[in-house]
Queue: 2 jobs
Job 1
Amino acid sequence: MTTSAIRVRFAPSPTGFLHLGGARTALFNFLFARHHNGTFILRVEDTDQERSTGDSIQAIFDGLKWLSIDWDEGPFFQSERLELYRKVADRLLSEGKAYRCYCTSEELEERRKESLAKGIPPRYDGRCRDRSNFSEKPHVIRFRTPDLPQVVVHDLIRGDMKFNGNLLDDWVIIRSDGYPTYNFAVVIDDLEMQITHVIRGDDHINNTPRQITLFNALEAPLPHFAHIPMIHGPDRAKLSKRHGATSVMAYHEMGYLPHALVNYIARLGWSHKDQEIFSRQELIDYFDLDHVGSSPAVFNPEKLLWLNAQYIRNEDPSTLTNELLPFLKPVQHPFSPSSDGQGPDLPKIVEGWKTRVRTLVELADAVHPFRDQEFSISAEAHEKHLIPENQPLILLFLQRFLTVSEWTKENLEAVIGTIGLEQDMKLGKLAQPLRAALTGQNVSPGIFDVLLLLGREEVLRRLDKALTLIGPNK
Ligand code: GLU
């Protein structure tokens, strides 16, 4: 496969789990690269030694892998590239575009307070700018920000944005511990990795003018910038924990299918006509930056749940069964539903259930009574259907099921049809106490599927148990 010149990156700082916003940034970069046959790079921005952790790095990899957002180059770790940053800083020093600053943090703090007291926005006053006596005393390296009235960011999503150049001070590029600052390392890496498009959250917009002045100082071409709007909760506040889970892997644990989440986050800020459901290939085919909006996207957990239900419903039973396996509860008392002694047919059970659940967790709960003789009877099912008035009907089912010659759908339909005529009851009504006794729930796949999946022996056992639970009919 030939690749175009397009090169993009996802550059997470590993200071926590992969959250929905980060996953969306990764996805947009990934889709953009795949759409244009370009290259997608993963770069871990771990220069904040105090806040970066190995667990977070792992959590980010796990999240990306679960969503199948795979990268072509990397992962690169900024902490392993310190020499490169140092080299560029030295070059800037030798060209007079950067300088050593020996101001201590106490001095800076004092001056900051003075500015605030005078009502002036605090910024570095350039005290060490023209210093000529160097020493080995602890120091930082600052970028000599050129005097510019204005810096313009040409943003592919928001159009041109003008920033007041006078507000940019001489910012630190290398800290006293030798580590680069975020804005410095980003530019050096974007340059060295030949990134053509910087696609990131618009919380970084205020960093972009600084980064542009540095690109210019290095006489390097600018990448294109595309700042994607924030994700808000339904109340229009920035998405946070109180809107529900924000970690990608929490959705894994709650029983979401990875592609349902990918489909959902793709639509957070991007659209293609009014289509809601996209295969992976469709996302790649249709994704481009021109349909990324500039207003905040609203996260709607109900819609995500709805979408997940659509994916579960449309998944083929054997694939869904594989997804379900890690969610299944351990079976305490297995039973054999068929005379040949084979265990319950999980894909068949899944097929009966998949249109009635929204998550794999719900599916695991739903299939449990079909795998285990021990299952709980819900309070609703008990109170509504397993009541003394229904005792004669359940007893009648038990007696007739005992005499069915072969346990087939046709025979069972005939038996239940006869009971319906005798009792003058419709199937829907007849099935309710039966369903409650056999599954412990008020909702289940069609009653004939339930009877067939459980097998005669288990059906009789459960009806008998329900009669015991109800007690003698007084
Ligand atoms: N490391 C930054 C972050 O995690 C992203 C930097 C960038 O994309 O330029 O927010």
Note: The CA atoms of residues 291 and 321 lie 36 Å apart.
Job 2
Amino acid sequence: MNPSPLSAPHLNPNLLGLMPSATLAINERSNELIAQGRTIFKLGLGQSPFPVPTVVVDALRAAAPEKDYLHVRGLRPLRETVTEFLHRRHGIERQRRQVLVGPGSKELIFLTQLAYAGELLVPSPSWVSYAPQARIIGRRVRWLPTDLAHDWKLRPETLEEHCHAAPGLPRLLILNYPGNPTGVSYTEDELAALAAVARRHQVLVVSDEIYADLDHSGRTASISHHYPEGTIVSTGLSKWCGAGGWRLGLFSFPEELEWLCAAMAVIGTETFTSVSTPIQYAAIRAFQGGPEIEQYVAACRNILGVLGRHSRSVLITAGCRLARLDGAFYLFPDFEPFREKLAARGVNGSAALAERLLQDTGVATIPGAAFGRPPGELNLRLSYVNFDGAAALAAVAAGEPVDEAFLRRHCPETLAAIDRMADWAVA
Ligand code: PMP
Ligand code: GLU
């Protein structure tokens, strides 16, 4: 007998075995353990610890009565402001009409994969959602190898080798810097070299610059400077503005890719219609900048930089291996030097590593396998964001220097979590 049309065998086969996103799953798991009375250090989900700047919250409050549906591509003044912001802050030249506003850059990345019929290229490790999105759509995914010795960066020869093997195929490369899960960024020279290969093989590039304003030293680099005609720049409010839950992301397209922007906008008209209207008005204020916003971003960067460097050095002193650190709020420690010790405790891969760490110490992290690394490796991602960002920003505003004493006063939970992790590894 055929299964009922209302039963599970009729699930889209692309979705078979697909689990909830690792970032969101670890957050739920942490909350459940906390509800059971466990002490959990939430280094799992990667979201900004800082409140949305007051001027932006005020703009949202003022825009609350705005209730009409908007143009699918977004409010015109927002698209203009974002284009100016990308130019002023990141040296990216674009035209107004080539910005697309979406309900989070995650959704825009998904729409790109839906609209562009090419294979997905992602360096390993990369953020957890790119590959599952390809899988949902039924696109082929190619993980491009990188290694810790080269700070987990994609090298031009690796891209060349892959494209050269089957020239002329449509390909989409997603490059994210500062990177999730590594915290590593690229130099302009490195991006220029990758751009040359991408141009030679006509690879479509999504430059995921969602953490670009959280480069700890305020540096800006973009592959779009070197390959403007083939690069979509992705940004948003989630990270630098602390507004992940507001769900607003932005794509900036070159003139040459207007056809792709138009196709994605059509999908938008049939799916989300337009992004929340009050949020779009508030986003204009966020991207306009000005002294309050500049000070806010500078303080966020400073705190994250000092905390990230401190955490990295504690883990290195304990014996973990780590890449350089440039920005965002992630570290990707490798516990390979502890392999024997860990094997004796039944830990032979990253899933078991994250699980045992959580059970033994209460520190919640995400296994490296979720980012595309081979499951037998001993790496994991931690997000050093489980502190009171509002209090830390207030202390900076009151003139406190951001040093070790500052970290002890304002980020004690994060320091404790890193210490526990280091002690656990060497035990
Ligand atoms: N890219 C990367 C690398 C991320 O870490 C995230 C996490 N939120 C996103 C894209 C998506 O961000 P959003 O949808 O909130 O704009
Ligand atoms: N990007 C964040 C992370 O990597 C969380 C939000 C999400 O995955 O959508 O943890």
Note: The mean pLDDT is 97.
